[in-house]
Amino acid sequence: MMNFTNDEMNLMCIYQSDSRSGLIAALTEMRGYLDEDEAELRELTDSALQKLGEITDEDFAELELVPDFDTDE
């Protein structure tokens, strides 16, 4: 299964959907609203979208989408 970073997991939690395709759609829509000065968030979103595109729906169903905003890692 794909290894998502902590930041990618947190982003996916914010836009969580019941399905992989729903989450991809939500992240893609959000990405369309990003300004040029939000390059870091755009890169994070692109990375998450790429990884979501490479896993199966079954792998997505096994993900534990629980936010972890602890920055002391």
TrEMBL record:
It holds the Pfam family TTRAP. This is Transposon-transfer assisting family protein. It comes from Lawsonibacter faecis.
